[in-house]
Design goal:
Order of helices and strands: EHEHEHEHEHEEEEHEHHEEH
Structural class: alpha/beta
Strand order of the largest sheet: 2-1-3-4-5
Number of helices: 9
Shape: globular
Number of strands: 12
Distance between the termini: 31 Å
Largest sheet: 5 strands, parallel
């Protein structure tokens, strides 16, 4: 798993990073909300460990903002504030779990494992939502407004993966792993072809959702109107 650790206490941050890496996790580290937003929009993470009392913008405000942007990566909010209303505020802002300092590393590891077992971003009727699109996972149908659209099997898998990681950059290797499988055999150009097909499909249904190429890294699902040159 790849974790993003957001903690402004440098000594604690170093200690947590060391123990997380020793436990086998890949860890990115930053110390404020500005850098945390950059990490979440520039690369893909499986989970965020977020300190509540950050300099500048606090963790709860930051969390609420990224949830409004449909960045649904699981978040464990870490804080010394242990009042009932502190926990309620954190959970209502979009935290998936809440851990009070001081804590034992064994408890943090257990919470990471427990949260990793939960289904991600699955809503009522087993649907994913992003922008003006709703994707029914069971029926493999995309809904925009009152219209339903059926995608090919590979287009469906690709869109589902993008929607589960909306707002985050996904690499070609991650796409290959999650859509074709670790043992899947596919030529590199086929990924480009299916990205092209899915872009045409989204354009054809006049969705405000589009796929941005992040050069040298991968792709990111975006929403909102941009010029055709940037969009395609």
């Amino acid at each position: 798993m790849k974790l993003l650790l957001v903690e402004d206490d440098l000594n604690l941050c170093d200690a947590l990073e060391e123990q997380l890496k020793a436990a086998g996790y890949e860890v990115d580290v930053c110390h404020n909300a500005i850098n945390a937003r950059y990490y979440l929009t520039a690369t893909s993470h499986d989970m965020v460990l977020l300190d509540r009392m950050l300099p500048g913008k606090d963790g709860v405000t930051f969390l609420s903002e990224i949830r409004k942007k449909q960045i649904m990566v699981p978040v464990i909010l870490i804080t010394a504030m242990n009042g009932i209303y502190d926990r309620v505020d954190g959970l209502d802002a979009g935290a998936d779990d809440y851990l009070v300092k001081p804590f034992a590393m064994e408890e943090l590891f257990a919470r990471i494992r427990a949260l990793a077992r939960r289904p991600r971003q699955i809503e009522a009727a087993n649907c994913l939502k992003f922008g003006d699109l709703t994707y029914n996972i069971d029926r493999k149908i995309v809904n925009k407004g009152e219209e339903n659209y059926i995608l090919s099997k590979k287009e469906s898998s690709l869109l589902e993966f993008f929607m589960r990681n909306s707002g985050q950059v996904v690499t070609r290797e991650q796409i290959l792993d999650r859509v074709w499988g670790v043992d899947g055999t596919v030529e590199d150009g086929n990924i480009d072809n299916y990205i092209h097909f899915l872009r045409k499909r989204l354009k054809g249904i006049e969705s405000d959702v589009w796929i941005k190429t992040v050069y040298g890294i991968g792709y990111r699902l975006e929403e909102g109107a941009l010029s055709e040159t940037i969009k395609r």
